[in-house]
Amino acid sequence: MHAVFQAIAAKQLVKIGVNVSAGQTVQYLIADAKNKHAHSRVVAAPYVNSKTRYDIEKYLRLLFSAAENILLPFGYSVQKIRDYVLHQEKQTLLNQKP
Predict the structure, then answer these.
(1) Quick check: 6 and 26 in contact, CB under 8 A?
(2) Of 27, 68, 88, 98, which has the most beta carbons under 10 Å away?
(3) What is the pTM of this model?
(4) 80 CB contacts (<8 Å, ≥6 apart)?
């Protein structure tokens, strides 16, 4: 199997006897996106509990990337969005030049 998140989660599900087929939606939590051990990068939904840790940085990168897709026409890059959200940099009006 490939080391993409969906495939890793699917492999975890197969190990507990869940029948997984190609194209099927697999739910998972990104636990440690850069872990050198592929099986530790995600946690399939049935394994998630209140003690499961998640990769905050990866989720922030995904969020900022999605925001950039919407706000890029107004001059907002991932870096500019990240700086504003994480460092409280002053917001500019959408009708002003960035």
Answers:
(1) yes
(2) 68
(3) 0.78
(4) 98
